[in-house]
């Protein structure tokens, strides 16, 4: 995406919001959007103040401002969808052909989709329906236009149209891939169908078609008590929610399998040197706020600030004393994003265990100890990112290098993304900041993580 194109797209949107705010309210408006502070009100009109503020916005911050616009401000449906499609086009998305889309539509029963008419129409409003009915303002009686046709031929007379006919009229077969992917995920969500059995039945109808494109709907967590599904490459579809998350160990933990079939793990000996996160992991992954809430309850802490401070220090304490690079990565992650950190994936250090879909009999008991990670991020939609910081011995020691490469392969085959940093890159804090800032910004954009301040 060219920054100039995105800037040209959202500039008039920002300036057009001027009428909703007074001169005195513009500074707070700019702060919420992440724009530079406007000039004093004595120095121009609201439009000119907003123009100057927006034009001073650095290119790397455009995406974050566009995200905040979508979440915080009201705009026309056509403008909103144009901005969404531009932003979503940058993400890695499943490419589902028109043929596969039609085959999915032919197998979907409209009666399953319209069990809750209000939810069904809200879903169509969210992704497909046009902004307004050009005839409805002047013609009395039943609503005309596409909305009226859907109410007539789908809701009141469900046998009139097939699912394929509906999708055709909505333009779903020709829609950009990222929009279709999000629509499909919502189609099997509790947002449309608060019925777990029906959700799973729809997934079993859709998945055989998606597999021909190398994709599947994978259960990635729980949302409001119902399963949440994400469209992922078929290789990731076997990812399960982490059953045991053992991390922040100040020394090598003594682990053993209580139940080898179910991978039930217990920690032998002193458990104060390791943390075990045992809460359900939802579709947003594990954010810092989730971790802080768990820590606050687990440690019986009454104040949020104390929970935040003590958790930060407990995780930092687990880092190796002889690795300045790992300390810099951990500290800078929190400094770079500041007040946005609570909504971001928690940077989990010294992770000793994750959910492995294979049992101990298949892996072998030694596999348990090979899968230590310097840092793990459990991202939205069941995505997992491992960060490793390698010293020179990782490259000069042939055995160590071979072990690293084997571990990378096994992690990637288990559905993890692995990124390695050299120690020399991160030992100087100022140089490390210049490396980590664009890295995490690009990483979050790729994995659909917003970085809004809280």
Automatic annotation (TrEMBL):
AbiJ-NTD3 domain: residues covered: 96-262
Protein name as annotated: DUF559 domain-containing protein
Gene3D superfamilies in the record: VSR Endonuclease
DUF559 domain span: 367-431
Species: Actinopolyspora erythraea
Coiled coil spans: none
InterPro entries, alphabetized: AbiJ-NTD3, DUF559
Classification via Pfam families: AbiJ_NTD3, DUF559
């Amino acid at each position: 995406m060219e920054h100039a194109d995105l800037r040209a797209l959202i500039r008039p949107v920002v300036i057009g919001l001027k009428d909703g705010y007074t001169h005195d309210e513009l500074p707070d408006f700019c702060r919420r959007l992440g724009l530079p502070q406007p000039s004093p009100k004595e120095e121009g009109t609201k439009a000119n103040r907003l123009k100057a503020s927006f034009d001073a916005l650095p290119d790397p911050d455009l995406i974050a401002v566009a995200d905040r616009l979508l979440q915080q401000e009201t705009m026309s449906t056509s403008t909103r969808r144009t901005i969404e499609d531009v932003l979503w086009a940058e993400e890695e998305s499943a490419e589902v052909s028109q043929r596969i889309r039609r085959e999915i539509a032919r197998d979907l029963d409209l009666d399953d989709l319209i069990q809750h008419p209000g939810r069904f129409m809200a879903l169509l409003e969210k992704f497909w329906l046009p902004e307004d009915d050009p005839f409805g303002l002047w013609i009395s009686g039943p609503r005309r236009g596409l909305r009226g046709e859907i109410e007539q031929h789908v809701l009141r007379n469900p046998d009139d149209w097939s699912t394929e006919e509906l999708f055709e009229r909505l333009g779903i077969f020709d829609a950009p891939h990222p929009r279709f992917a999000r629509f499909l995920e919502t189609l099997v969500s509790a947002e449309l169908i608060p019925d777990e059995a029906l959700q799973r039945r729809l997934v079993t109808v859709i998945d055989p078609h998606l597999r021909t494109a190398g994709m599947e709907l994978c259960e990635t967590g729980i949302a409001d008590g119902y399963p949440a599904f994400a469209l992922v490459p078929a290789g990731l579809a076997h990812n399960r929610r982490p059953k045991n998350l053992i991390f922040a160990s100040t020394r090598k933990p003594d682990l053993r399998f209580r139940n080898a079939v179910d991978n039930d793990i217990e920690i032998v000996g002193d458990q104060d040197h390791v943390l075990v996160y045992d809460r359900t992991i939802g579709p947003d992954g594990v954010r810092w706020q989730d971790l802080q809430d768990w820590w606050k309850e687990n440690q019986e802490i009454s104040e949020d600030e104390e929970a935040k401070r003590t958790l930060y220090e407990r995780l930092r304490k687990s880092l190796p004393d002889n690795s300045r690079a790992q300390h810099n990565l951990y500290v800078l992650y929190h400094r770079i994003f500041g007040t946005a950190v609570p909504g971001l994936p928690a940077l989990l250090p010294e992770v000793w265990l994750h959910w492995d879909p294979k049992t101990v009999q298949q892996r072998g008991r030694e596999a348990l100890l090979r899968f230590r990670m310097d840092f793990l991020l459990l991202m939205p939609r069941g995505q997992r990112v491992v960060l490793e910081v390698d010293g020179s011995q990782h490259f000069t020691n042939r055995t160590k290098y071979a072990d690293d490469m084997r571990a990378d392969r096994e992690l990637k085959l288990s559905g993890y993304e692995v990124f390695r940093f050299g120690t020399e890159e991160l030992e100087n804090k100022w140089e490390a900041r210049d490396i980590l800032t664009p890295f995490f910004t690009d990483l979050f954009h790729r994995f659909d993580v917003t970085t809004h301040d809280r």
